Amino acid sequence: MPVLVMKFGGTSVATLDRIKRAAKRVGVEVAKGYDVIVIVSAMSGKTNELVGWVNETSPMYDAREYDAIVSSGENVTAGLMALTLQEMDVPARSWQGWQVPVKTTSAHAAARIEEIPNDNIMGSFGNGMRVAVVAGFQGVSPEGRITTLGRGGSDTTAVAFAAAFDAERCDIYTDVDGIYTTDPRVCKKARKLDRIAFEEMLELASLGAKVLQTRSVELAMRYKVKLRVLSSFEEQSDEAGTLVCAEEEIMESNVVAGVAFSRDEAKMTLISVADRPGIAALIFTALSDAGVNVDMIVQNISEEGRTDMTFSCPTDQVARAEAAMAEAKTTGTINFAELIADTEVAKVSVVGIGMRSHTGVAAKMFQVMSAEGINLKVITTSEIKISVLIDRKYMELAVQALHDAFELDKAA
Ligand code: ADP
Ligand code: ASP
Ligand code: MG
Asked: What is the C-alpha separation between 191 and 77, in angstroms, rounded?
């Protein structure tokens, strides 16, 4: 029988009633003749609570225990979903990651899925089971330890299962009815898209649109998974939601497809570092060794052989970056006057494959920011996106102004 993957996010399984509603959706697909793999998240808020407990117990925690703890929320919802389906007379059982097994790397808290053998679950389908409920977000390392895939990782579990089982489709059920031109919680005029290209969704996700985890989009693109995002709160047709698909499958699209933002950014500036070959390598090697994910980088012009180097990183990595730079200064590896951390910034980006062939998007973006009196602290561009770092207090304003200026409320 054809296989369908259905993923339910945290808000869609937040209460027993919602699990029941989700189970009914699953029942509809089973009745159509699909064998269904259901991927569940933890109940909404649960993973945050577990992460909080870890931090409270041990600020410099052992990442293997972090994973053992934070993966547990999904175990509960997987069991509850299986029970709910059984109550509806749908043959179902739950699977934790290690039971499938979902084989991952050992990079705890940010593991990557390497392989999902499909024989165990296929075997159960062969024996009359109709639904395999799999705990999302988790896997098992080569050392036999529980791993997690990074926040939002259940999306990636879902797409990886769709690829491994050659599923007809991967449906991501969430609390919005599709992918919008920007987060509808920030911009009332955000418009739901019927389709969006993989490349655009990949950029939007990596620039902060948390509706899909970046890695899930990457996998869907690589394995040509038919990926759809839709609401778990409404009755659904086969056409509902937003389809993430190849560029060629979209007839008309705006030059700018969407606006993304990321609140938790910090801008770090090293004042007066020696401007000589190898200095950037030293700085960014030290940061990378300390586990700091550097995003934007700007080197200012130098004066008398000294320059300022600016980079951005997530706010929760500022302490680590400061420690790494302080150590490099003490050991004499890197000589600088001062490290200034600005933790009140946000990144706003416009994304669209149309930018490949249209000029003037950057100019327009900068004009909009200027008209709103918003200062641009750092700018980076790539073929299909432009990002700026601004004061966090202007983030919503910037998103709304850009959405208006690029007329994203109107279809192409
Ligand atoms: P789930 O728990 O189902 O995984 P998430 O909270 O991870 O749900 O993702 C859904 C949320 O993503 C929405 O509630 C919305 O606020 C946010 N979001 C951000 N950008 C977008 C966008 N472009 N389109 C739709 N939702 C977006
Ligand atoms: N429960 C995990 C999280 O909150 C994974 C997910 O929901 O996708 O990050
Ligand atoms: Mg999510």
From this structure: 32
